[in-house]
Every structure is written in structure tokens, then in C-alpha cells.
Amino acid sequence: MQKIRATLAIVWRIAIPYFNSEDKIAGRTLLAAVIALQLASVGADVLINAWRNRFYNALQEKDWDGFVREMIVFCVLAAFSVLISVYQLYLNQWLQIRWRRWMTTRYLGAWMHDANYYRMQLQGDAADNPDQRLTDDVKSFVSQTLGICVGLLGAIVSLISFVVILWGLSAAAPFFMYGHDLSVPGYLVWAALIYAIFGTALTQWIGSPLVNLNFQQERYEANFRFDLVRVRENTEQIALLKGENAERQRLGQRFGSVVANWYGIMSRTKRLGAFTQSYSQAAVVIPFILCAPAFFAGKILLGALMQTAEAFGKVQDSLSFFVTAYTSLADWRAVIARLDGFEMSIKSSAALAVSKSSIQVEPSGAADTISIEQLLVELPNGEPLVTAKGFNISGGDRVLFTGPSGAGKSTLFRAIAGIWPYGSGSVAIPAHASLMMLPQRPYFPIGTLKAAIAYPAQADAFSDEQVHDTVVAVGLAKLAPRLDEDEHWNRMLSLGEQQRLGLARALLHAPQYLFLDEATASVDEGAEAKLYRLLEERLPATTIVSIGHRSTLAAFHTSSVALTRDGNVFSLRGRSREEMKSSLAE
Fold it and tell me: Which helix (H) or strand (E) element contains residue 398?
């Protein structure tokens, strides 16, 4: 019961925000309509159950007029039932897509807010494969929640309706044995209840492992799909390294987990299916076994027997809702667990960003200075990496960061950008200052070349002439006529070309602070010199902070900061231009 209550609490927490959202009127109206049609469907079943009694009695008594009359009644009831089923499905699907759209938008907003997606990955990504959570799991949650909850409501209403009918039929068709009537009030209801309790208990015992198996299956499937995407995104590197066998083996291992877990699902489903099918087949004959003696003794007519059999089946089906829906319930619980984990991971990463024990980015009192008074940057495991005290980057500076690989230069940049939470202290940045970080491998969304360069702004933020001139200026005149081509540019272009386009992006956006994390490492020294001179010419007011290892970079920076080991951490130490040149030359 504790698990059931906990699961229902999670379902309520995930589901209820939609029905209190800006789309609540449409959502509540559609839900009410779906529920009303479900109740109407139960009403139609009750009417058909009563019709069954009259129809079979007419057959037994060879009443032609009664037979014709009941056939006409059946046609009306059947048309009513079909109409209910069609519109129930239609409105259910309409509600599903509206609910799913709202949930997807909400989760996307929370996941993408303030670099939550990045911190979730740093935390070990407890909610693995967020793409699956946002697509398959949201879709499954909406459809299964509606299906199971509306189905359960229908089962409850059907149970109440047919228990009344079956109780009355128990009196009309008394339990008859060895020529004697045994007075057991509502014996057919008690028989259905005992049978359902027995089936439910055995179903839970046999099928409970399916919950975890379904959870793991979705995880293994998503991991396999993710690795296939990784291969597609890195085809060139794999081909150059002749890594086909290694990739095939790794993908085979991933798929092996899918297959092994599927065998577990097959085995458990076979056992559950064998029981539930046997259970359902036996339920068909139980009311005939109980009522046959009274029928053959002439106590009831054929119509009453058939009505009793159907009413018993409806009561037993309602009581056995858990049995018949167990596989769906197991899958539903797995979906709920994944969405719950996704929500908790988002909340955890959001809390990490504002935690007093993490690195804070605050407004600076100075108009054009980034200040670091006391900062300790740590790795996610708590190991100290970089310490900085009393360090400032003033407006118009050209600062070069140097140091050995692994010293934490890029991580320090991430802390300044406000996306690295691990550590303590704060970074003060002028209010409303614009920062742009260019990594060694820039990101370009799939789309037109103009949109890729303008990112994160919209493509129409800059004129075609501006973009064309900038692309030519960074040495990619051959790409200038292709601004409207739609391609996967990270795949199409070499890393050097991508870095040139990254600098073209910076020239267009003209940020107040530009951080270059080895952003020209893949172009030759001559091209690098031209690009830095281009930055000086077109962005004279921009403060440029670079990470680099080439000695030629010294000529384009006015000061240098070296990360040197100080015990178990690296600390910042300023260098003169001569020291900078000497260090880079080494």
C-alpha cells in the first residue's frame, strides 16, 4: 500500500499541473467529456444486459414478434454504443495531444533553463537519456494515465451497476443443489469477488518483476539508440581510426543487454499470460456452472441464464481490472519512475545553481571589470582544481591564459560563464554585460548556414550582406554563396573551417567580453594571426580572453596569466610580456 500511495502521489504531482495550467479549460472540458462518455458506455452495457434477457427468452418461447422487436432495439443500442466508442476515442486523442504538448513544453523549458541540462550531465546524469524522457516517456505517461484512470473509473461504475443486477439475479436464480434451494444472498456476487481476489493475488505474485524489467528495457533501448547516434555523429573519426570492429563490439554489447533483458520480459510475460488467459477462460464458464442446476430444474429461463452469465462476467471483469491490465500497469509504473527521476534531476541541478555552497555569478560594482576576489573551482567529486584571488579582467584588456593541459583553464572559463557550480566563491560581472564563449569545437545547429552563424540569435537578426561580408572576412569566401543551404554544418566542415565560422559569429554579435578557448587551435599560425588582427580591427571595444599554447599568440595580448601548480591546486599568476613569450616558446 505504501508503494501504491507513493506511486499515486507521483502521478498526481506530474499530472495535475496541466489541469491547473493556462490550458485548463480545454483540458478539463475534454476530460469531463471522456469521463461522461465512459459512463455512457457503462450505461449502454447495462441496457444491452437487460436486452439479452428479453432476447433469449423470445428465442426460447419462439416469440417471433418479440424477436423482431428486440432486434430493432438492439440496432438502436448498437448504434448508440458505436457512437460513444468513436467519440470517446476521438476526444481521448485530442486530450492526449494537448496534454502532451503542454508537458513537453514545460519539461523542455525546465531542462533548458539556465544550463540545467549541462549540470544534470555533470551530476552523473541520474536521468539518463533525456531525449527519451521528453519523447517516449511523456507520450506514454499521457496515454497510459488516461487509459488506466478512465478504465479504472469505468470498472468501478460497471462494478456498482452490475453488482446490483447480479445480486437481484442471485435471488431469481437461487443456488440449486441435489434438488434443494440453498439460500445464499448474492451468492453470484460473492463468487465473483472470491474469484477476483484469488486472481489478483496470483497476478501480483507472478508479474511483479515486470515493473523493473520494463524500466530496464527502456533504459537499455535508449542507451543502444544513443550509441548509434554517437557513431553517426562521429563517422569520420571512427573511419580514420579503423574503429569499425571496436564500435561493432561495443554496439553488440549494448544490444546484448537489450536482448538479455527482453528474454527476462518474455519469460515473465509467458508465465503471466498463461495465468491470465486461463483465468479469463475459466471465468466464462463459472456462472454457467453455478446457474445450470437452476436452469435445468426449470427455475429460470434461458434469458435469465444468459443475462446472469454476462452480468457475472462484467462484475468479474471489473473486480479483475488489476489482473487484465497488469502488463500495462507495470509499464506505466516504469514510465512514472523515469519521469519522476527526470523531474528530480532537474530540481537537483537547479538547486545546485543557487546553492550557497556553489560558485556564484554576481553583478559587479565596476562598469567594465570582471572581478574574482576569492574563488575555488572544484571537480564534481569535490577535488580542488583552480584557485583565484584578487584577479580582475578590465574592459579593453587582451589576456592570454596559459598552463599545462588539465590545469583547469577551460573549467575556469565555465565558472566565469556561470555554468560550472562546483566550488566556492563568486565571480562579479558587470550588469547587462554580454559574454560569448567560443570553445575549440563550436556548435552549429542543423539548418541554413546563415542561421548556424547567427546562432543563438535568429537568422534574420543580421542582414545577408552582414553575414556574407563576415564569412568572407574570416577566409571562407567559398561558403559565402551558400548562406541559404540547409546542412549539418558540424559534419560538412573541417574543424578549422568551423573555428573560422565561430569567429564570424563573434564578429556579428560583437560581445563586450569574448572568451576564446583554443578557438583557433585548428588553423595555421598565419591564418590565426589574420583572425586575431581581424578581431582587433572589428571589435576594438571587446575584451578578449584567450586560452592558447602557441608562442605567436603573445603578440595579440597585452597580458598573460599562467596557471601554476600550488600544492594540490593550480593558482593564477600574472606574467609580463617577456615571460609570456618565453613560456609559450618553450
Answer: strand 398-402
